[in-house]
Amino acid sequence: MFSGSMVALATPMYADGGLDWDSLHNLVEWHIEQGTRAIVAVGTTGESATLSVNEHLEVIRRVVDQVAGRIPVIAGTGANSVTEAVELTENAAKCGADACLLVTPYYNKPTQEGLYQHYKAIARAVAIPQILYNVPGRTAVDMLPETVRRLSSIGNIVGIKEATGDLDRARELLEILPQDFAVYSGDDATALELMLAGGHGDISVTANVAPAAVAQMCEAALKGDSETARAIDQRIQVLHRALFLESNPIPVKWALCEMGRIDSGIRLPLTPLSAQHHGALREALRSAGVL
Fold first, then answer.
1. Would you call 64 exposed, middle or buried from its count of C-beta atoms within 10 A (0-12, 13-18, 19+)?
2. Does residue 106 have an active-site annotation?
3. Residue 285 falls within a domain, yes or no?
């Protein structure tokens, strides 16, 4: 089972939007050195929505090749089309990914039965371990706990990234799902409480800029050391909030650029962080001890 701090890795780009492979290489090495337990390549934070299929798969391949088995690589392969999701998932498996993360189908607003059939079809088509991803604030569809429970009986569906930030929802999932089915936080601000309640880790945006702190917080929480975990989390809560001053990954890419780790590139329709937020995010980075 994957556990601990799993970074939802930003995809570095030059100012013209071209992919910056050297910075990607450096980010991967930095995360391994800092204690990140798994890398999620080309998820929401990785700008999956604006990468071409070839770019998408090339990022996955390069991350897998560079990691070389040192930590797991989880590939973002979700889509609102079963055919596209199967194609991405098949290719991620061929690239050597350890698992895939599949967001709920966006825009077309399926029923709960439609969600069940969507994930069932992908799981049957590709044997790789698969993690569900529920983020209704972006997709306009909410996968309810009963649907997750039904899907948990499919052998290669192994977990869920629950990104509602609703701790009551998270506790309900932990109550009704098998113990070997992983529940991961997709909301940094509430990740600590989810792990202390029995969750298995944090698929994190904040880990992009504070990998050591998030890794240490997760490790303490999973060991039940709530005092240590809360002390670390209190120090980085300001980052959890500041990294969502505008839509993710706008703030996190600006922060990484400010830290000198990537160039300033981001693809339309996303635009660079508004100047009015620069001071607040810079101060949050300083307060958390990462700038």
1. buried
2. no
3. no
| 45 is annotated as contributing to ligand binding | yes
Q: How far apart are the C-alpha atoms of 240 and 265, rounded to whole Å?
A: 22
Strand partners, 202: 5, 185
**Token pair recorded at residue 137:** 């604030």
Structural domain contains residue 253 = no
225: exposed, middle or buried (Cβ count in 10 Å: 0-12, 13-18, 19+): middle
pLDDT number for residue 51: 97
Amino acid residing at 221: A
Q: Is 87 helix (H, G, I), strand (E, B) or coil?
A: helix
Average pLDDT over residues 226-232: 98
- Mean pLDDT confidence for 34-41: 98
How many CA atoms lie less than 13 Å away from 196 in the CB half-sphere?
14
Considering 116, 119, 133, 184, which one is annotated as catalytic?
Answer: 133
Q: What is the CATH number of the domain that holds 189?
A: 3.20.20.70
203 carries a ligand binding annotation: yes
| In the predicted structure, residue 1 carries a pLDDT above the cut 90 | no
Active site residue 133: yes
Measuring CA to CA, how many Å separate 253 from each of 139, 223, 261? 22, 31, 9
Check 116, 119, 161, 184 and give the catalytic one. Answer: 161
